[in-house]
Each structure stands twice: as structure tokens, then as C-alpha cells.
Design brief:
The complex is a heterodimer.
Chain A lengths: L6 E6 L8 E8 L2 E6 L5 E4 L4 E5 L5 E7 L5 E7 L4 H6 L1 H38 L1 H11 L2 H18 L2 E2 L3 H13 L7 E5 L6 E4 L3 E5 H6 L3 H16 L2 H19 L4 H33 L5 H15 L7 H5 L4 H15 L11 H7 L2
Parallel strand pairs in A: 9-11
Antiparallel strand pairs in A: 1-2, 1-7, 2-3, 3-4, 5-6, 6-7, 8-9, 10-11
Chain B lengths: L6 E5 L5 E6 L4 E4 L4 E4 L3 E7 L8 H14 L5 E7 L5 E6 L4 E7 L6 E5 L3 E5 L3 E6 L3 H6 L5 E6 L3 E7 L2 E6 L4 E5 L3 E4 L4 E6 L3 H6 L5 E6 L2 E6 L3 H14 L16 H4 L5
The chains are: A alpha+beta, B alpha+beta.
The structure holds zinc ion.
Zinc ion binds next to α7 and α9 of chain A.
Chain lengths: 363, 266
Amino acid sequence: MSQAAPIPARFYPAGGDAHGHPALVELAGDALQVLPEDSPPRQVPLTGLQAATRGFNHSQWAIAWPAESGGQHMLLIDEAAVGPLRAVAPALFAGGEGARRRSSRRFLVGITLLALVPLLVVVALLASLDHLTDRVVARIPPSVERQIGAAVLARTRLEGRLIDQGPAFEAVQAIGRRLARPGETLEFHLTERPEINAFAAPGGVVVVNSGLLKRAASAEEVAGVLAHEIAHVELRHSLRQIVRSAGLRVIFGALAGDYDALGGWAAQLGELKFSRDAEREADRRGLERLAEARVDPAGMLRFFETLEKAEAAGKAGQLPALLSTHPATQERIIWLREATTTAGGGPVEPLAIDWRAVAGSLR
Amino acid sequence: MAMDVVDYEIFGSEMQYVEVELDPGEAAIGEAGVMMYMQDGIQMDTIFGDGAQPQGGFFGKLMGAGKRLLTGESLFTTVYHNEGSGKRRVAFAAPYPGKIVPVDLSQIGGTLICQKDSFLAAAKGVSLGIAFQKKIGVGLFGGEGFIMQKLDGDGMAFIHAGGTLLEKTLAPGETLRVDTGCVVAFQPSVDFDIQYAGKVKTALFGGEGLFFATLSGPGKVWLQSLPLSRMADRIVMASRAAGGGGKEGGSALAGFGLGSLLGNDE
Ligand SMILES: [Zn+2]
């Protein structure tokens, strides 16, 4: 029958030089016939052999047997060529195969863990983000908060003119004075913008758009909105929002240097969710403040009803800002209606403001 | 299996270039950006993939391209083809001070594993592949990352070693401990591993890394005296001292990012 083709190998005789010698290997019954290119052939019984994988990714087989003179003779055979030998003497190769399998399993497990570690770190950071935000916010001194407030105000000035005199300005100041508690440092600004919106910046800065005043039917309605915004200031919501979104940006930035888009998107999503939780609390605190200041809480309710009507009428262009960050108006009105009725009618003093004149002063 | 036989000549001492002579119809491949000059009659052809599978089909080419993306190399390889009627020459220059090492793959068993950015040029028909280093420790701390380059075939390949070259044949069982980053290339029979240096103090104050690369025979290894990363670190340090800004050099910590997981740029 046809003999299998000889297997190319490199032969390293015991005590020989480092380079080894090209050789061919053949099977001859129960023995291995080694035919070095430049020395006499040798016969080695298969039973005396030991085989192990070695080299880059276990790509080579080292087959060794003891030399008469001490030391070991060794054959180096490529994995790609060793097939016929393995077919005849599988037991010789079993140990090496096992070692190869174990090592590639170790590699897979290790590489998976390596990929998971950054992911786990990110998940842990995200999970503790609220806690971290609290700790950072607690450490920010009022002076820094005021600086941030001033910066926000400066940006507002760029976007729309500040109205700093006239009946509308005076009305906002009067409502603010009525709502402020003794010792509170709050400043109220009126900006000339059409959107129905108001916002609170760190450092006690509350900004109202002229568009909101135009929509409101009474000073009490504006007071409701301002009370809500003051609650945001009190609870340091804007500051938390800033710290939190900065934290999100840092986390996503660290995860992968150039996932800016994803980071920004996730950071915005975080802001939105955060606000919805905070709004609920601001509504509650706002109502408390109105009661304390003896302002009719029905104004707040009425204003949101007005908003909802505008929303239903599809004047979306005019009211995105306040609504997008606030809980669904319907839901909110239901809650407010319940809260104002259960709180019961406390003593109320109307705000002495000529609202017709205020509305008339705004073009 | 017609591998092109390439005659070559290496010029220079510290900043070398290799001139490759092509018979009519013969070709050589070079990494993008290393060609120095070529004579009239040589056609440059940019091919998708690595030029090893001339009829490998679309999918084969795509695989080759994917592998090259992984190693951070350009998707295209340039083939220099002699369309003239006589012998023509094309030269490839080393990118930084060092030695160009000519390796005859037919003399070393047909396969060479090398650091991914040390390949310079080869006869067409030598295939360039990537080989994943499947030892986590070596990938992280061995200085070469997880991706090595594998050259297969029986033609001439030219690789580049930074600084001075050491070419050494290790006997079976003979082990050499090497600073990580100094390994340029080795035969696949060589065991490449890492060993903890054992002394944090040495690592912190001695300026050496926490790990050695260990190479054990049998087989041939090529070492460089000046890894590019080491030279780059010194230049960054010097420019920082001179008042310029610079980013951190490649520390062990930098190896933990996902990006560098797929290949520590050394
Ligand atoms: Zn709000």
C-alpha cells in the first residue's frame, strides 16, 4: 500500500547547536523514522516519545525522547503537518491537545472579562450618579452658585432683551417680594421673549418670559408659576441638573473618547427624566409657598388649565419649553386640583396689581 | 505557486532604505507611505486587501480588509509592478532610525510573526495576515498588544527594527528576558511570554516596566534596541520640559482602554 508522505520537521539532537537540522519524519511500524538532511537516520519507538505544544498560539509540536548520552533529542513539527502522525498515535498528542484547549478557553474568558470591566464600571457609576450628584452639590459653595447664576443670566441677555422698567417689570418684582421669605436672596428678571416659559438658575435667579405674562389672566397665575420656580431654586434643582449632566458626559467620555454624540444624547435624556421627578416636588413646595404668602393657589391651577387649552388647540410653537420639561399637563392639573381642594381655603389676600395695565404694557 | 524572487540591496547605516530589483513582470508589495522612489516602467497599483490572494474573490478581499482595519493599517496595499522590458528598481525607506532586516521566508520555514508596525515591504506572494496573540498577559503587558502580523510564503520580506538590531537563534529551552517593546519578530516555534519583574520598587524607580517579555527557543528572534514608543516618550518628555504640552506616554494603565486592547501602539 502507499506509504504516507514524509512529514517535514526540524531535528534538534541533544547537545547539538541552536539551529537544528531539517529532517523528514516517517512512520515505520511502531517506530518513528527520523531522516535528518545531514546525519544518519534514526529509529525511535513511539512508546518512548513525549509530545507537547509550544510556540506562538501552540502552533508547533515538540516531540522529544531521551538521548543515550543524557539530555533530549527533539523534533519540531508544525501543527499543519502533524496530522498523519496524530492519526496513528492519538494518545501521544492527547495531553498537548488538552493544554491547547485549556489555554484558548482561558483566553476567551479573559478577553470577555476585559471587555466587561469598563462596562461594569459605567453601570456602577450610572447607578450611583444620583448619590454622587448629591455629594458634589453639597460641596458647591453659594459663591460658586451665584457665579453660575450670573453666567446663565448673561446668556439670557444675549438671547432676548431684559425688561427692567415699566408696569410688567414692577408687577414681577411685586409678586416676587410677596413670595420671598425673610432672608432669602432671590432676584426676578423679565425677558422679552414670546415663549410661555419661566426658569430658575442657580444662585436664586428666576427669569420670566414676557410671553408668559401675556398669556396669564391675573397676577395670581404668575405667582403660581413663580412659586414653582422658586421651589426649584430652593431645592437646587438647576445646580443638580448641571452637575448631573456634567457627570454623564464624563462617564460616557471615559467609556469611549469619541462617543460624544451618544454621550450628549444620554445626558439630555437624563436631564429630562430628572426634571420630571423634580417638577412634582417643585409643584408641592410651590403650593406651600403660595399658602404661606396668602396667594390664592387657584391661580396656579388656572394657569395650567390655560396652558392645556393652548396645547390642545395645537399652538405648539408657543409652548414647547415649559411643557417639554414638565409633567404631562393633564396629569398635573388633576394633581393640582386635588391638592388645592384638600389644602382647604386658607386666608387669601389678593395681589394689588392692575393686571390690565400690565398686559397692555406688553406689545 | 510562483513566488517572485527578488534581488535587493540595503543602503545607509542608521537611516536605511532598501532597493528592490524587479525583473519584467515581477512585483513587490509595500506598506502605504514607505516608498522612496521607483524607476520608470514600474506601475503602482493600489489594491484592496494585502495582495496575497489575487483571486480570493470579494469575500476573501473583505476579510483581508477587515484584518487590516484591526491592525490599524490602511485598507489598501500598494503593489509595485514592473511593466518595463528590463530590470527596474523601487526603494522603500525605514520610517525612523534603525535597521532594515531582510528575511528569506523560505529559509526559516515559511512563517514569521512580527510586531504589527515593523513590516516594510515584501515580494508579492508573501501573504500578510494578522495573528491574535492568545495570551492575555502577553497582550496586555508584552508591549506588542494582542495583534501581531503574520508573514507567510517563501519570498523575501523586509522588516524594520528601531535602533540597532539583534538577531539571535535560541536553542531548545534557551530563554532570553527582554524589555517589553523590544521584540520585533520571531519564528512561530518561539514561546513568547511575560514574567512579572517581581519588584514594584524597580518598576517605580528603576524606570523599567513591571514585566519582562520572555522568549524561549528553539527558534530565531529579532530584537530592536530602540522601540519607537521609547523614543516617542523621550521626545514628548523633552518637549514638555521645553514648555510644550504633551500627552502621557504609553503606561500600563493606558493598556486598559478598549481601544488599546486591540493593539498597544509600540
Ligand atoms: Zn419647573
